[in-house]
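(Deposited chain)
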Amino acid sequence: MANYTPKPEHKFTFGLWTVGNIGRDPFGEPVRPALSPVEIVHLLAEVGAWGVNFHDNDLVPIDATPSQRDKIVSDFKKALADTGIVVPMATTNLFSDPAFRDGAFTSNDPKVRAYALHKTMHAIDLGVELGAKIYVFWGGREGTETDAGKNPLEAGKWFREALNFLSEYVLDNGYGAADGSGLKFALEAKPNEPRGDIYLSTTGAMLGFIETLDHPEMVGVNPEVAHETMAGLNFLHHVAQAWDRGKLFHIDLNDQGIGRYDQDFRFGAVNLKSAFFLVKFLEDVGYDGSRHFDAHAYRTADYEDVKAFARGCMRTYLILKEKAEQFNADSEIQALLAEITADDGSMDGFKGAYLAEKAAALKAYTFDRPALGRRGQPYERLDQLVVELLLGVR
């Protein structure tokens, strides 16, 4: 039987807020006792994770005194040292506190925007202190319920100004370098929830926005399965676009039903075929970043079941990784792919960059249009082979 035990080279990570979720929802009180950050680190070590990520206030309460902060961080560092768990990514909670009820970087109130910068600078310091190389920005409150209340053009300018300011802060403090090495930012898109409409709602929108920043080399994206899927979009396509632009700095893995609220299910729990193609893509292109499970156990779970949830996320990824290897080695599948992508070389002269003579030759070329229309593609056969592969009968 194959061994699907997670190893450090797989770079599987969870957030303090994921396995530490106490099961509260808008309609119900907590069902699990809160675990301390130290307890969560030991839980993750027990299930075989490589790393732990955190929002600033997952670790240090927002109202902690300096001495309390130092004690919490010291205890956390000891837990990391005792278990070998690392901190690859950190982020700031700019959505829970009432101060951010109308946004953080895009709040209409300049005091709130300044406080958001203040909070984020302190959180970046903490992330760097604990070893984080990626800093994620999820703008959960950056949006509106009514466009009567906020100017989207001004809000975009405020968001840009904040990221430019924080990029300079990172450079000024020696956390990063102008060539893009060191600490990097990763922007996380989401279409809605908790705001009615969140600004920069897709990965593509984030990629366009990044090019307007003063230091675009420092900024990439952190796409999340649930966020694009809840809007009915194809997550794989957004990941491929980010990879093509060299901007896939981090990725959040979970699962989601289309058209539902943000469910954050165990990876592969809903759309197994989509999860397969995502894993295959990441493995085929050689993605070397964290594979972060931003997912939550069912509210019905106790902590033993939470451990099963965490193990399940990693185990499913490794099983799909093995399936991707089988796909690449399957002679029948590869023969169909060769048929689909067959190239007789007759169009070689038209490929590549524009040349005037190439354009003239292409304009003069006579195509057999009816023949082009008669060619079918064996996608039904290919897709059925994928289904059979995933069902374990190949």
